[in-house]
Specification:
The chain is an all-beta fold. It folds into two domains: 24-113, no CATH class; 146-252, no CATH class. Helices cover 0% and strands 57% of the residues. The protein contains no helices and 19 strands. The protein has strands at 27-36, 42-56, 61-70, 81-86, 89-94, 105-113, 118-132, 137-144, 147-150, 155-162, 165-170, 177-184, 187-191, 198-206, 209-211, 216-218, 224-230, 236-243, 246-249. It has a 19-stranded mixed beta sheet that branches. The protein starts with 26 loop residues before the first strand and ends with a strand.
Length: 252
């Protein structure tokens, strides 16, 4: 479970994440930049509180729009924003100083990117991540809050700690991967079509497992486990949950 059981202080009764709009009487600041990238350019994102919204669009540029929202009486210098493009890649950050976790210091990051872009690391402490029409590489981790994806495919590694992971209209492509994990939350995978080739492994330690994609179930004792080998038995769908349900759906 790649260390999900090592998350300190998280239990089945952990409180729900605060909404992204928690900052009161916000005073927005904006940072915008357009960067030319190629399909191999690694892109990393690191924010403390807020939202990351990425949409795959036509074109070859990365268009980044960051909005800082600072609550009344808060020091905006505690939330520096940065968009850095170098030969090594693109780094986007809005990390609170001194390891702060103040919900009144938030950033909303909206990105338009080529669908095949490589988001090699997206890190959010609390808020939400939304992905749409991306077909390259996405590796994302959020400590508190949901991950939502629509119309995605490619190589996706999505990890939540307290919050749901939900994909709709997703596709499993040759050479791709769908790895979905959360510690305390539900995982819902809605596939756009039944894959002709796949290896499916799904396990929840404290929850229910349902699937309209035919699986072989082991659910009488202990963890609920489902698996299937379809066609060539690859690529892989891997789903792991500690506290929460797993639901897999395919069109009839």
């Amino acid at each position: 479970m790649i260390g999900l059981l090592l998350v300190a202080g998280l239990t089945a009764a952990a409180p729900s994440p605060r909404p992204v709009a928690a900052a009161q009487a916000s005073s927005p600041d904006r940072l915008q930049r357009t960067i030319a990238i190629d399909p191999s350019t690694p892109i990393t994102i690191d924010i403390t509180e807020g939202a990351v919204d990425i949409t795959g669009t036509t074109g070859h540029d990365l268009v980044v729009d960051m909005v800082r929202r600072v609550g009344r009486g808060k020091d905006r210098s505690r939330l520096p924003m940065q968009i850095e493009g170098t030969a090594a890649g693109v780094h986007i950050s809005a990390v609170q100083t001194d390891e702060g976790k103040d919900p009144d210091l938030q950033t909303v990051v909206k990105i338009q990117a080529p669908p095949q872009a490589r988001f090699t690391s997206i890190q959010v402490f609390e808020g939400q991540i939304h992905l749409q029409n991306l077909h390259g590489v996405v590796t994302a981790d959020i400590m508190r809050g949901p991950i939502v994806g629509t119309g995605v495919s490619g190589t996706l590694r999505l990890v939540g700690h307290v919050g749901d992971v939900t994909l709709t209209d997703a596709r499993l492509t040759d050479g791709g991967l769908l790895r979905l994990r959360t510690f305390n939350g539900n995982v819902t995978l809605g596939l756009a079509e039944s894959p002709p080739n796949a290896r499916v492994l799904a396990v929840t330690f404290r929850g229910a497992l349902t699937s309209t994609l035919p699986l072989h179930f082991k659910d009488k004792f202990g963890p609920r486990f489902g698996e299937a080998s379809i066609g060539r038995g690859q690529p892989l769908i891997s789903i792991d949950v500690v506290y929460g349900d797993i639901r897999i759906t395919v069109p009839h």
